């Protein structure tokens, strides 16, 4: 574990100061409570927990994956699993509620998505579209078409 710091100052005497550095093995770092307290004070408890877990060999490889890849993986889960996953972290909660995910889920569940349905999804959200039954969707589409027709009629 290597920590480096720089002294930032407007004084000309401090400009030539070299960065400070602490190098410790994982075991030494885990035993150095002073350094751990300093890290927690400066960077926060979450950062300290993350570093301690790395030193213990606990890697969270999911955190390293980009959102678009995670969304693709999540789209194959059952609804109950998506609900559970959304409760594990803020990042997964955001991903599980994202329109991109629910658009993928709706596309996999439907044979064909009409342009009207796509426009309605942009208004309502893909998640809402997924959980709305067919009769309600048809009613929403009729209302939307009627509003559009009323707007074009009022323009003339």
Structure description:
The radius of gyration is 26 Å and the shape is elongated. It has eleven helices and two strands; from the N terminus they run ββααααααααααα. Helix 2 (about 35-45) packs across helix 3 (about 45-55). The chain has helices at about 25-30, 35-45, 45-55, 60-65, 65-75, 80-85, 90-95, 100-110, 115-125, 125-130, 135-155; strands at about 1-5, 20-25. A two-stranded antiparallel ribbon has the order 1-2. The mean pLDDT is about 85. With about 160 residues, it is mainly α.
Short summary of the structure?
The chain has helices spanning 26-31, 33-43, 45-55, 61-64, 67-74, 79-85, 90-96, 99-109, 115-124, 126-131, 134-155; strands at residues 2-5, 20-23. With 156 residues, it is mostly helical.
Keywords:
single chain; two-stranded antiparallel sheet; 66% helix; 156 residues; mainly alpha; elongated
Briefly note the structural class of the backbone. Answer: mainly alpha
Strand content: 5-15%
Give unreliable regions as ranges. Answer: none
Instruction: Count every beta strand, where a strand is a DSSP E run of 2 or more residues.
Output: 2
Using only CA atoms, what is the Rg?
A: 26 Å
